Amino acid sequence: MSKGSRTRGLGARHEERRRQIAEALLAIIDLHGLDAVSLRDVAARAEVSLGAVQHYFRSKDEMLLFALDYISERGTERVRRSLGQGEQPPRAVLRDILAELVPADDQRRAELRIATAFTARSLVSPKLADHLRAGYDSLYDVLVLLIRHAQEADEMPAGLDPERTAAALFALAEGLGMQVLIGHRNPRTALAILDEHLDRLSTTAS
Amino acid sequence: MSKGSRTRGLGARHEERRRQIAEALLAIIDLHGLDAVSLRDVAARAEVSLGAVQHYFRSKDEMLLFALDYISERGTERVRRSLGQGEQPPRAVLRDILAELVPADDQRRAELRIATAFTARSLVSPKLADHLRAGYDSLYDVLVLLIRHAQEADEMPAGLDPERTAAALFALAEGLGMQVLIGHRNPRTALAILDEHLDRLSTTAS
DNA sequence: GGTAAATCAATACGCTTGTACGGTCATGCC
DNA sequence: GGCATGACCGTACAAGCGTATTGATTTACC
Questions:
Q1: Residues 6+ apart with CB under 8 A from B171
Q2: Which pLDDT does position B18 carry in this prediction?
Q3: Which of B61, B124, B185, B201 to mutate: most A Cβ within 10 Å?
Q4: Which residues of chain B have pLDDT under 70?
Q5: B49 and B71 part of one domain
Q6: pLDDT digit string (tens) for B8-25?
Q7: What's the domain range around A24?
Q8: A109 and A87 in one domain?
Q9: CATH number at residue A79
Q10: Cβ contacts of B174 on chain A, cutoff 8 Å
Q11: Which residue, A57, A75, A99, sits at the end of a domain?
Q12: Which of B37, B57, B77 is the endpoint of a domain?
């Protein structure tokens, strides 16, 4: 296997150190934006030398890509946890996952700010766009699946097209999240609007 | 009045020149992103000297702010035009305005890319955020008004809360626009989803 | 104990950046 | 005719940037 999986000896803490540096990078993006990131600032915040950062990342680009994958993984992990609790009915799980896109606490807020920064840059960076789209796709697939399950459990009308519905709910949640982030709406109202639409979907005849 | 309104003599073409430089700036944002903007690149694209750019804008920040107001004005103008055609029923006007947020052609696409870049930066620049929110607010107000009119014309159920509905439609359209921009969905599907939701809203009992 | 790799630290390089400054020429006004 | 102002141009500068390089120290393994 690769050196990354080593648990003892030289290189054992390699991945952990990379994550630690990535955390510093993400903190800077949250505070000052993606443009304001310099290797020296990252090093200072991570309390290591510039040389150390260079040792763990060949280039700034590689560091950015790693940080994006790192934070994506955190999001994926949260979705997995939501899915894991099998007691809940599919519609409730769907609601929970969508609600994650509305930043109700500081941590979620920071993550959404960071995700927004990466999204903006992905518009001019194909490589970033690829990595971002991967996470996007998998979340979308989960939504489609949950809607199907909800339909099978008679929690949502069978007449709904799962893919379109997933796209709509995704877009709605994302848009609401953005409005909250901008300060245009408070999280409570945004979540209420989301729930309202979920209810409307469930009680539609078509 | 200020010198900006002068139409003859010295300073007559002042505002026009500023707009011309702003166009170059916006083109660079569309192509390479907001971070990639340098005064020299702007000067080159506008086919003027660096000194000329400096002459018309005291600082880079001022130029960015001007460009944001400039492109916002263009959007506002389009909304005004949609509102202007009085023959159309309010729900159709509402639909047109929401559809503007889904980039179906190159021009709309470029504008949304630029708006996204500004939005991302506004997360770390309060001054930009203020300017952006102003346009946001006025668009939101227009949506609320149109929904009220649609209700009065019996095109939408009176039971709907106009403000919440406006927020929801806004968020949905914005989210769909983003999905199209990312390349996740094609404009046709996005517009179909938008229409579907407008229909669902109109035929809801509550 | 020796060798090789990992882990840094320090420094330097070339480049780009926003801004400042000085100068030139044209224009408008008294 | 003089004088202020507008409209530039060219250049210079200090700061910051990503990256390369070199070297020292530690660690793991034979």
A1: A171, A172, A174, A175, A176, A178, A179, A190, A193
A2: 94
A3: B124
A4: 1-12, 205-206
A5: no
A6: 444 557 888 999 999 999
A7: 1-57
A8: yes
A9: 1.10.357.10
A10: 171, 174-175, 178-179
A11: A57
A12: B57
Residue pLDDT, tens place only, A151-186: 999 999 999 999 999 999 999 999 999 999 999 999
pLDDT of residue B14: 82
Question: Do residues B36 and B50 share a domain?
Answer: yes
Length of chain A counted residue by residue: 206
**Residues B159, B181: one domain?**
yes
**Nucleotide D8: closest residue by CA–C1':** B52
Q: What is the CATH number of the domain that holds B26?
A: 1.10.10
First CA to last CA distance, chain B: 53
Please count the other Cβ atoms lying within 10 Å of the Cβ belonging to residue A105. 9
Same domain, A78 and A140: yes
The shortest C-alpha distance from A119 to chain B (Å) reads 8
* Distance measured from the CA of protein residue A124 to the C1' of nucleotide D14, in angstroms: 31
Q: Tell me: do B53 and B64 sit in the same domain.
A: no
Question: Which residues on chain A are in Cβ contact (under 8 Å) with B116?
Answer: 119-120, 123
Q: Gap from B40 CA to D3 C1', in Å?
A: 34
B195 CA from D1 C1′ (Å)? 72
Task: Collect the ranges in chain A with pLDDT lower than 70.
Answer: 1-12, 205-206
Measured CA to CA, the distance from residue A25 to residue A124 in angstroms comes to 20
Residue A122 structure tokens:
């992905």
| Six-digit token string for A118 | 């990466």
Q: Among residues A84, A59, A8, A133, which one has the least CA distance to residue B178?
A: A133
Looking at the structure, do residues A99 and A44 belong to the same domain, yes or no?
no
Q: Do B66 and B15 lie in a common domain?
A: no
Q: Per the structure, how many domains does chain A have?
A: 2
Q: Of B133, B143, B142, B6, nearest to B68 (Cα)?
A: B133
Q: What pLDDT, on the 0 to 100 scale, is given for residue A7? A: 44
